[in-house]
Every structure is written in C-alpha cells, then in structure tokens.
Amino acid sequence: MEPPNHPIDRSRGRARGLAAVLATVLATATAVSAGLAMPAQAASTLKASAEAKGRYFGTALTRGDLGISAEVNLAAAQFDMVTPGNEMKWDATEPSRGSFNFGSGDQIVSFAQSHGMRVRGHNLVWHAQLPSWVSSLPLNQVQGVMENHITTEATHYKGKVYAWDVINEPYNEDGTLRQDVFYKAMGADYIANALRAAHAADPDAKLYINDYNIEGTNAKSNALYSLAQSLLSRGVPLHGIGFESHFIVGQIPSSLQANMQRFANLGLDVAITELDDRIPMPADSSELQQQGTDYGKVVNACLAVARCVGVSQWGVDDGHSWIPGTFPGYGAPMMWDSGYQPKPAYTAALNALNSVPDTSPSPTPPTSPSPTPPTSPSPSPTPPVTGACTATLTTVNSWPGGFQSEVTVRAGGSAVNGWTVKWTWPGGQTISSLWNGTQSVSGSSVTVRNAAYNGSVAAGASTTFGFTANGAAATPALTCTSP
Ligand code: G3I
To answer: Which residues cross the membrane (predicted)?
Structure first.
C-alpha cells in the first residue's frame, strides 16, 4: 500500500528494477576494492552476512509491494525475513465479527516461502487498525472475542510464522498501559491472556511484545522491563521483545545496546523489528552519511547482544516508506533510494555485519556485557580474591514474590578454566530462569557451573551469570571453586 502524499515514479522503478541487485553487488565490490573493513570472504547481501552471524535481516512487505517487481526482486535478494506491513492486522483479518479473511496475509506468506524467507507475524492485539466493532463491544465480551481472534489467526498460520507480535504497542510514553478496549475489559491481564492463547494455538512460534520508543532506557522501556519480569516470573509464555526502531537521523539512543541486553538477560530474545531512520527533506549528503553511521550503530548493537536474533527494516526503498505520509517534511528513511539504488546506509549495514567474525548459530547465548542495574543493587560482601575464583551476588531487581540477581565470577591470580558456584537458599527460594550457566538443585542447595562459552576467565577478569527466582530476595554466601 502506497503511503498518502507520496507519489511514486513506478515506470522509473520498473526500468531500473532489474539493475538494482546488480547495483547493490557492484556497490559491495566497490567497498571491497576501496579497502573498507570487509574480510576476503565477506558476504555480499544482508541476508547472507546476517546468516553467517546466526541472525536474519528482514523487511516489511505489503500486498501492494508484491506487484512492484523491482521492489520484490530487491527484497528477495537481500532479506530472509518478511513482516506483513498490514495484512495480518485485525482490520484485515477479522473485519466483522467471526468473519475471517486471510487472503492477503497468505499472499505474503506464499511470497516469503517461495523465496526461502521466514515470516514475522504482525500482529494479533493492537489498539490501532482495530475494527470499530471490537472497540465498541460490551466489555464483558472483549476477552472471548480477543482470544477467539488470536486462536483463529495463530492456528491458521501455525507452522508458517517464526514469531508473532502478539501484543503491539501497549504503552503510553510515560510507561502507563494504553487504556484501549482490551485494557478496559481485562486490565493488564489482557497481555498474559493474549500470550497464553497464542501459545496454545502455535506452541512453536516465538511470542513477542513489540513497541516503539523503547529502544533506549526510559520510562516506557522501564515499564516494559518490569512487565516482562512479572510475566516470566508467572510462567507466561513471553519469548521476545521487539524494538521497532523508527529513528530520526543522528538520534540513535546511546543506551540501545545496554537496553536490549537487559531484556536479553531475562532470558528473552530481542529483535530490531521496524527499522527506519528519517531525514528532514531534502536530504543532503552529510545526512545520508550520518544515516549510514546510524544504520551501522543499530546493526552493531544487535550483533553485540547474543540474543538479538535479527534486524528488520520497515520496507525496502524510500519510494514506498510510510514516513513521508505520517511525518510531513521527513523522508529518505531506508537503505535504498526511490530508484532502488543502495545508499550509504546499505553499505554501512553490510560492513557492520561483515566486520565481525562469522559464528555458527547457537541457541545458547555467549557471555555479554552486564546490564545497568535497574534498581538499587544489594551486593553480597565482596570477598578477597585469594583462591581460584570468587563469586559475588547482586540483587538487581525485586517485586512481590520474586527477584532477579546477577552473580559475578572473578578469577584470582591465575586464569580459571571452568568454575562452580554453590549456595544454599535461606527461605525456600526457587530459580525460575537462569542464563549464562547450568544449574543443578538439590533441596535448598544450588550448584551453578559455567556454560560452554564462559568457563575460561583470565586472571583477575570476570564473567557473569544471572537468574530470576521466586520468593523473597536473598543474598546467601557463595562459594566458587575451579577444577
Ligand atoms: O485500507 C485503507 C483503504 O481502504 C483506504 O482507501 C486507504 C486510504 O488512505 O487507507 C487504507 O488504510 C491504510 C492502511 O495503512 C492499509 O494500507 C491507512 O490509511 C494507513 O494509515 C495505514 O498505514 C499503516 C500504519 O501502520 C497504520 O498505523 C502503514 O501502512 C503501516 O506501515 C504501519 O505500520 C506500523 C506498524 O504496524 C506498527 N508500528 C508502526 C508502523 C508504522 O506506522
């Protein structure tokens, strides 16, 4: 669907379409010959390079986009994940009560499957693009209607979507939940109810909460972080957080990586789901260069967070973006211009991907920087480093009935190769989720050993593991040994 107020020169697009992929490859070859930081074996498409790093690189496509050959050729060449721009939303899939229409969504899925691309389902519950029959329901009917919608749609796409944005944009900017019809009917419980219904319908899909202006640490992302902790502590099937990332040129939040990392440390996947970077028009060359810097920063942030599974741009080219229609005076937010030519943002994103060593995809996260503690920490006493290693526990957050802790394992005067941390819970606490280590529990005794990737710690250096637990926050004495 073309955004309003944004004429598109389609004839030019078609004529230049077949050249677009070639132009992209040439741009990459030029970058290589210019000596930019790309290894000899550097992949020449976003998807190939992302896959070599165990990630995906995606795009949003609408049914209208499928008819524009230059755009879909470019999408198929560069991306391995598709998010339907509008076709799986409530207004498209259940325009009147009980009357479902999956035709447009099916076309997107079929395009993706025939080009070896996966699909992010978008979305199941959202206050916008919601038919008026839903928002005007008697409140005592909303839960049943919502769960029926989720069950029917998630069952229809079962096995065909990698992930679902189950809850889309639930928050106001101040960190309060939007007072939409779902909230009015069920309070905050609508979120858990929706996630449970989606999980029952498609147990293999990764279930996300997706929002904008949560990319940096702020009131909105703090509220979502608390919600995520609460949902996980109650066993609600939440698997990931989508950071939409609709940025303004030069304004990537400096806390992006640390913010994603703190969610990842809860045991969640994280993803950049709707990336674009708008520029006041007309865009000059320094702004296009800055946009490249921005795209590089975003890709690098994802690569630095082990549980960041991928990056998706919200569209393909400047000629079909939603930005000019919604933000008059702004445009040029994508990696390709309206003639499908790659911009500095494309080269920067590809270089960022190619500048780190390839990894084989792994479900277990490698060790990563510690998040900024969100609440007043309460560390256990720091012991002197006299033996092989020491372990220090910090309570990073707590809530009624649960808490989250981080344990720092520090090597003594010699490097350690493998470590074991033990403690005894004082009051019946139980771990609900643990990351960056492997646990065994016997009654109140807990033993945590290093994961496969963080057993080697240099002399004086440290690594961390973390967990969420049920019960009252506690700081038991820890012992650390190394074989
Ligand atoms: O379907 C009607 C059509 O019948 C009518 O003739 C036409 C006239 O303008 O409008 C059509 O609806 C448009 C709809 O897209 C479907 O194409 C709406 O006007 C238009 O506002 C709507 O825009 C979509 C927007 O979500 C709505 O909030 C954009 O295409 C879509 O890219 C955008 O996507 C959202 C994500 O879902 C969530 N995050 C933000 C992102 C950007 O806004």
So the answer is: none
Nearest in space to 180 (alpha carbons), one of 211, 140, 134: 134
Q: 436: pLDDT confidence band, cut at 50, 70 and 90?
A: low
Domain ranges of the chain: 46-354, 389-481
Q: Of 51, 71, 147, 169, which residue is the catalytic one?
A: 169
DSSP 100-160: ---HHHHHHHHHHHHTT-EEEEEEEEESSS--HHHHTS-GGGHHHHHHHHHHHHHHHTTTT
> Is the Cβ atom of 269 under 6 angstroms away from ligand 1?
no
Of the candidates 301, 303, 302, 290, which has an alpha carbon nearest to the alpha carbon of residue 333?
290
Peptide bond into 377 cis (omega under 30): no
Six-digit token string for 367: 């060790």
pLDDT tens-digit profile of 277-321? 999 999 999 999 999 999 999 999 999 999 999 999 999 999 999
Assign domain 389-481 to a CATH class. mainly beta
Q: What is the pLDDT of residue 128?
A: 98
Ligand 1 proximity of 322 Cβ (cutoff 6 Å): yes
pLDDT computed for residue 401 by the predictor: 80
Q: To the nearest whole percent, how much of the chain has pLDDT over 70?
A: 84
Check whether domain 46-354 has CATH 3.20.20.80, yes or no: yes
